[in-house]
Amino acid sequence: MSLRDLAVIAVVFGLLPVCLARPWVGVLTWSWLGYMNPHRLTWGIAYSMPFGMMVMGMTLLGLPFSRDVKAPPRTTEVFLLTALWGWFLVTTIFAYYPADAWEQFVKVSKILFGAYLTLMLLQDERKLRALIWIIALSLGFFGFKGGIWAITTGGHNQVLGPPESFISGNTEIGLALNMVIPILFYLRRQETRTWLRRLLLAMALFSMVGSLFTYSRGALLGLLVILPLLFLKSRAKVLILPLLVAAALVGPSLMPAGWTERMHTIETYDQDISANQRLNSWWVAYQLAKDSPILGGGFRTFSMEIYQAYIPGYIYANQQQDAHSIYFQVLAEHGFPGLALFLLLMASTFVSLRYLVHVTKNRPDQLWINDCAKMIEVSLVAYAVSGAFLSMSYFDLFYHLVAITVLLKAFVARSAAAVPAPGTGVAPAPAPVTVG
Q: How many folded domains does the chain comprise?
């Protein structure tokens, strides 16, 4: 047993009693395990230990006795999230491959349940900020490490995520890094300690490098979209603009030939095997949805049998077929109603973030909410763009960002309800948090 194994075991087992006594800490610990996967960075007994199950078990045991438990805020996003989860259940009941579908439904339900626990237990600014820190540092760690590794090795190899995790592949970690970069900039903007501001900036910059050297074309497109948005939302435009210009002019010449050749296939996608496989997957997903427009095929419906049903004689070396798109994945697996709910959830979250930016822009006490909403917007844009090219429809971070947006709206609504009534100097009676 290595020191890494001992360290991870000691930390997790040390946190278990705290998760029982304070279930909100369980949500934070669960998130840390889910995003950073520290056990996957070991080589011994800790590698395969069910830490997540342990933490969630202690959290649920402590839930009935916790004073922190509150009903989720009544918002459009919560309604859509509940409807989407319910629809997943319906499509699983009628799935083409029931055994595989039920297994995946359980996994996705854990992710959605984690989002609900966030809504129920983190209705406090301090706790919510702690969650944001954990998400940023957990994923930022891989960006920091991956960026340094890419630079020191000349960028000739792919940056990958922790093995046997949701973000183990190059395209998956590329999406995750693109989504966490804006969150790192948000935390840096709020931080006053110089050393920590520098660390967060280094994490963000190395994450950009790490995202590039995943060799994922979807990650590159996502990065090209979020960089201008970060510039537009930054308060230090004069400093950032020269960096962007220099990166655009000098960066391509510093890239290894393998990376350049890979990215050039974006222009010649019709001659690239991987790109053609993606187009085939989208075609199969659309045809399947046409044949089963209401229920789709259920979770894990992409099989060689399905491919050959729509593309006779289809053979591909990789037997693990994939939708290669969050949109086509939901469409094929859950039909047009499932896709509609998924898109409405995403759109409603964007609308709520715009609302938050508008109502908090002249409120010094809510400046952190304004900054947070702006950066979550950019993070969701990264998900919408990079996710168009890989199957990450059930990525934890998307649903966590939805939950964070809901809680930010609840904070704003609670603050508005506490404003004294005109002419009385007395605050109105607290009302239930119900926001658009």
A: 3
The residues, ordered by sequence, that sit 6+ positions from 36 with a Cβ below 8 Å of its Cβ are 137, 138, 139, 141, 142, 162
Mean pLDDT estimate for the chain: 87
Give me the pLDDT at residue 280, please.
86
Q: CA 132, 371, 141: angle at the middle one, nearest 5?
A: 35
3-state secondary structure of 49: coil
All residues at 6 or more sequence positions from 403 whose CB lies less than 8 Å from its CB, including other chains? 115, 116, 118, 119
pTM of the model: 0.89
Residue that is last in its domain, among 229, 248, 267: 267
| Cα dihedral sign, 179-180-186-189 | negative
Q: Give CA–CA dist 51/55, Å, rounded.
A: 6
Cβ–Cβ under 8 Å, residues 383 and 179: yes
d(C-alpha 160, C-alpha 79), whole Å:
35
Query: 3-state DSSP call for residue 66?
Result: coil
Give the CA angle between residues 379, 35, 14 to the nearest 5°: 140
Structural domain ending residue among the three candidates 224, 239, 267: 267
- The answer as to whether 373 is a domain residue is yes
| Angle subtended at Cα 164 by Cα 158 and Cα 168, rounded to the nearest 5 degrees | 30
Residue 178's domain spans which residues?
125-267
Do 328 and 247 lie in one domain? The reply is no
Polymer length of the chain: 436
